[in-house]
Amino acid sequence: MKFFIDTANLAQIKEANDLGILDGVTTNPSLMAKEGIKGTDNVMQHYKAICEIVEGDVSAEVISIDFDGMIREGEMLAAIDEKIVVKIPMIKDGIKAIKYLTSMGIKTNCTLVFGPGQAILAAKAGATYLSPFIGRLDDISYDGMDLIAQIVQIYAVQGYQTQILAASIRNPIHIIKAAQYGAHVITSPLESILALIKHPLTDSGLEKFLADHKKNNS
Ligand code: E4P
Question: What are the residues facing 113 on neighbouring strands?
Answer without folding.
Answer: 132
